[in-house]
Structures are given as C-alpha cells and as structure tokens.
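Bug #77: duplicate submission created two jobs. Keeping one. Sequence:
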Amino acid sequence: MEIVQENSERKGFFKAIIDGKEAGLMTYTWAGTTKFIIDHTEVHENFKGKNVGKQLVLKAVAFARENHLKIMPLCPFAKSVFDKNEDLKDVLF
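Kept job's structure:
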C-alpha cells in the first residue's frame, strides 16, 4: 500500500493506493500552523477489512510527529483509532 499526501495552506489529504487504485482517503483541515483536524476518513468498498483506514491515520500521526504538530480527530473513525491506541496520544490536542 502506498500512501500519498497532498497539503495546501488550509486543507489536505492522505490517499491510500493499492495496485494502482485509490483504496481510501482521509481529509484534514489546518487549525492554525501547529494543529490539524482530521475531518473525514473513507475506505472504498473493495478495500474494506484491509486496515486501510488505520494506515491512513498512522500516516497522519507520523506526519504530525515529524513536524511537531498536534491532531484533533473529529472524524469518528480516526477518533476510534486514537481511543484504542494509547501510543498515539502524544499528538492529540
């Protein structure tokens, strides 16, 4: 699975690609210069059950750690990943 990121001044997304096809998408909105809000995560039907959504969240966490950022997971799926994984709490705000 390849995960690519597109980032602009106000918004961005992480896209999962498997075998050349888009498997999932997670969008975020910047809340200042040091925080972003995960507002939506979706996994396409053919790729459900393959851990795509969790991998998108983990990629966002890696991005946050590398850039000393904080994340607010408003998306219910992303919030559930944070709730189930204590080791991700360092990037929460």
